[in-house]
What does this fold into?
Amino acid sequence: MVRIIKRYASRKLYSTEESRYVSLEELADWIRDGEEVRVLDKQSRKNVLAVARP
It folds into this structure.
């Protein structure tokens, strides 16, 4: 299952699965644990994490 995280203009990260804001540290932990994560910009709906990861 892919975790969908919405990134708002205020740079807050919102987990749609858990219906709550998450920290950057939590996001990093999920990635380190091998979970598939998509961070979508709220306005453009582009995967902004793909820019940061090769």
